[in-house]
Amino acid sequence: MAQLIDREFANKQATAQEHEEQSRFRQVHDQLLSLEESARRIETTVGNTITVLEIKGRQIGQVVIEALGSVQFQDITRQKLEQVSNIMLDFAGHLGGLCSKLRQGSDSVQSIRSQMFAVESVLERYVMDDQRAIHAQSLGKATATKSSSLPAIELF
């Protein structure tokens, strides 16, 4: 009988330990399921964040490109205005010199006539094809189509 009691007691202990282990396994299982769900939420959040960052990055890139284009346009405009200003200053100086020569009568008519047409040297200062076309139009000359030997992008 003592052996029977010992066996029953051992069985009860084993069953209690088994229930305790099963309870611990269930806790670990539940924790793993909770961890898996948390990992899925984090993955979704990270995915959404990356998508938003990609969209914002493209938007920022577009704004930067537009700003650079605006700066480049302003720089080209500034350069053209400076060029016109320099040409006008040179032209004023040239005309002043011609006027003084005409008043003094010191040069021959042929010499004065050749200096009058020296203004055409302005054409050599042009760096853009549209400047040459406008110049030709102002003189009543036919504008030539863009030369295929010229680069598609004009650098100056």
Description of the molecule:
With 156 residues, the chain is mainly α. The protein has one domain. The chain has three helices and no strands. The relative contact order is 0.04. The model has no long low-confidence stretch (mean pLDDT 81).
Largest sheet: none
Outline the low-pLDDT stretches. Answer: none
Number of domains: 1
The proportion of strand residues reads under 5%
Task: Record the SSE blueprint.
Layout: H1 2-104, H2 109-116, H3 129-138
Write a brief structural summary.
By secondary structure, the protein is mostly helical.
Descriptors for this entry?
78% helix, 156 residues, mainly alpha, rod-shaped
